[in-house]
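Friendly challenge for the regulars: who can give me the structure tokens for this chain first? No prize, just bragging rights.
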Amino acid sequence: MAIQSLAVFCGSKHGTTGLFTEHAIELGKIIAEKNIRLIYGGGSAGIMGSIADSVMLHGGKVTGYIPQLLLEWEVQHRGITELIICDDMHERKKKIYSVSDAAIVLPGGFGTLDELFEIITWNQLTIHDKEIYILNSGGFYNHLISHIKQMKEEQFLYETAEKRITIIDNPSSLLQYL
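First reply, four minutes later:
Bragging rights claimed.
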């Protein structure tokens, strides 16, 4: 099935290297050029805002889901196609992933990791069966990837992580999966 909408989970900060923002902007351009709707957290800050800006700049469509609580924290994006206000973080995650055909995770903090592990768990439990990609910009997720491999080696996982997650090192690598 062709991907028509892509959930993007990422940070509401830019991080310490410009590579994270560069990759977000490049990915946004790819999403727009492939006529894929960006589904994301609705914020205008950090790489979250950068990817939304890039999709819009390149003529794409963006739907943001933001919880009432974060309207002031993340400063909702006022320049996207559609902004939907949710009651809470749980509803936000569920809606983002349920309306998307696949998901990609960019660098971010605790919230991004929470989103990553919840969607992996949903796939493992067959609540959803969508492709999950990790954009490992500049090796940002190397330690996490090693830890996931260790979880399998220590027999805490029912299957290999590769069955649920595809790791890419740059945005253009996603093209082969679209």
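The chain has one domain: 5-177. DSSP finds six helices and seven strands in the chain. Your move, everyone else.
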